[in-house]
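Worked example

This section walks through a single chain of length 97. The input is the sequence exactly as stored; nothing has been trimmed or padded.
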Amino acid sequence: MTFSDFIDYQYSMTKDPKLTVWHGALLTALFLLAVRQKRFIGIRVSRSRIMTLAHIRTLPTYHKYFRELQEWGIIVYRPSYHPGVKSEVDIKKTPYQ
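Given that input, the structure is written out below as tokens.
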């Protein structure tokens, strides 16, 4: 995904009335992690890192909006139940087209 794709993705999100600022904060945090890891599939994540980057401080807020992104097919989440292995997230390239 190029920078232009990222801008198109962000712009397409503004057209979806069900997305809130919290969804945007989570997606932006995931994009930051994706860019750092140089991949948009299999992004290694931790809840605490996402919450810090998204400036979300409460677990209920995080879980609600993260779950909604999964339900709407915007992200695919693969949890890891091993404490030494991070969970993975895939960002869908074109969720609104």
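What to look for: DSSP finds four helices and three strands in the chain.
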